[in-house]
Amino acid sequence: MRMHLSIEQINDAVQFRGTNGDHDVTIASTGDQEGLSPMEMAALSVVGCSSIDLLTILEKQKQTVDDFHAEIDGTRAEEPPRVFTDLHLHYRLDGDVAPDKVRRAINLSLDKYCSVSNMVDQTATITFAFTVNGEQYEQDEQSPVGD
Q1: Core vs surface per residue 27-48: b (16+ CB within 10 A) or e
Q2: How many CA atoms lie within 13 A of 126 on its CB side?
Q3: 145: CB partners within 8 A, 6+ apart
Q4: pLDDT 10s digits, 84-122
Q5: What whole-number distance in Å separates Cα of residue 140 and Cα of residue 132?
Q6: What domains appear along the chain, each with residue ranges and CATH number?
Q7: What number of helices (H) and strands (E) belong to the chain?
Q8: Which of 19, 119, 127 is nearest to 72 (CA)?
Q9: Is the pTM of this model over 0.85?
Q10: What pLDDT does residue 42 have?
Q11: What is the mean pLDDT of residues 115-138?
Q12: Quick one: average pLDDT of 46-59?
């Protein structure tokens, strides 16, 4: 599958507009400018890709997700090229969903289906937690945290 993307500089600063032809994103070199840094976009791509997989898998399993939210925290190497060394994802779901199905769907996404996480995991350790209807679960625990 081929894709074509482009960027153009939008001011005298190192700031760009990236596009796929239909949608634009502002790319900035620092937090002092409007837009996302390339590394922020990479992290968002990991959580975005895995979230799409997660919700698609749960839908196929007839799980009803009424509300969904996901976050990602990352640590980068101190020396260039300053790649991600650790990423932690936290998914929050409300609805008629079984925690064991959520865990399995996340594992399938991160281990098999999500192209972005499979690229990033060459340099970073990717971990996750999830919350279902207010009960938090860690990656390797079968019961809610605190039980």
Answers
A1: bbeeeeeebbeeeeebbebbbe
A2: 22
A3: 135, 136, 137, 138
A4: 999 999 999 999 999 999 999 999 999 999 999 999 999
A5: 15
A6: 1-36 (no CATH), 38-138 (3.30.300.20)
A7: 3, 7
A8: 127
A9: yes
A10: 97
A11: 97
A12: 98
Q: 14: buried, middle or exposed (CB in 10 Å: 19+, 13-18, 0-12)? A: exposed
Side chain identity at residue 39, one-letter code = M
Pinpoint the alpha helices (H) of the chain: 38-60, 99-108, 115-120
Supply the pLDDT for residue 147.
42
Give residue 82's pLDDT. 96
Residue with the two structure tokens 């990352």: 74
pLDDT of 144 strictly over 60: no
User: What percentage of the chain has pLDDT greater than the value 90?
Assistant: 87
- Spatial separation of the C-alpha atoms in residues 15 and 41, rounded to whole Å: 14
The burial of 133, by beta-carbon neighbours within 10 Å (0-12 exposed, 13-18 middle, 19 or more buried), is given as: middle
Query: d(Cα 41, Cα 28) in Å, to the nearest integer?
Result: 10
Is the separation of the CB atoms in 131 and 90 below 8 Å?
yes
Nearest to 41 by CA among 52, 54, 25, 55: 25
* Distance from C-alpha of 4 to C-alpha of 21, rounded to nearest angstrom: 8
